[in-house]
C-alpha cells in the first residue's frame, strides 16, 4: 500500500495585511485568491506572490511586460 505525503506550509509576513486562513499576515500553501478591481485583476499564487493583469484591448495582460508564464483568459462572462 502506497501512502502519499501531504504537506501544508505556512508563512508569516509582518508587512502583509491580508487576512488568511490563519489570521492577518499568515498564509498557507493552499491559499489563493482572485481580486477584481475594475480593469485590473490580482491573483495570489500558491507560492505567495501576486500576479496582476490589466485589460488592454480586450485581452488580459500581466504587469511583467506580457510574459506568458502566467496568463488570464476570459471565457463567456467569467
Number of strands: 8
Strand/helix succession: EEEEEEEE
What Rg is obtained from the alpha carbons, in whole angstroms?
16 Å
Give the low-pLDDT segments. none
Distance between the termini: 42 Å
Seen as an oligomer or otherwise, the chain set is single chain
Counted up, domains total 2
Helix content: under 10%
3D architecture notes:
The protein has no helices and eight strands. The protein starts with 9 loop residues before the first strand and ends in a 16-residue tail after the last strand. The strands form three sheets. The chain has a four-stranded antiparallel sheet with strand order 5-6-7-8, with no helix packed on it. β2 and β3 form a beta hairpin. The protein is mostly beta strands and 78 residues long. The protein has two domains: 31 residues, no CATH class; 47 residues, no CATH class. Pfam families: DUF6531. InterPro entries: DUF6531 (IPR045351). It comes from Clostridium saccharobutylicum DSM 13864. This is YD repeat protein.
Give the arrangement of secondary structure elements.
Blueprint: E1 10-12, E2 19-20, E3 23-24, E4 26-28, E5 33-37, E6 40-44, E7 50-56, E8 59-62
Antiparallel strand pairs: 1-4, 2-3, 5-6, 6-7, 7-8
Could you list some keywords that capture this structure?
two-stranded antiparallel sheet, 8 strands, single chain, mainly beta
Quick recap of the structure?
The protein has 78 residues and is mainly beta. Helix content is 0%, strand content 40%. The protein has two domains: 1-31, no CATH class; 32-78, no CATH class.
Amino acid at each position: 500500500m502506497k501512502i502519499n505525503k501531504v504537506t501544508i506550509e505556512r508563512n508569516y509576513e509582518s508587512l502583509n495585511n491580508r487576512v488568511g486562513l490563519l489570521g492577518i499576515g499568515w498564509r498557507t500553501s493552499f491559499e489563493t485568491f482572485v481580486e477584481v478591481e475594475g480593469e485590473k485583476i490580482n491573483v495570489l499564487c500558491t507560492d505567495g506572490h501576486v500576479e496582476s493583469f490589466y485589460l488592454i484591448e480586450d485581452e488580459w495582460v500581466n504587469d511583467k511586460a506580457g510574459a506568458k508564464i502566467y496568463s488570464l483568459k476570459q471565457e463567456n462572462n467569467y
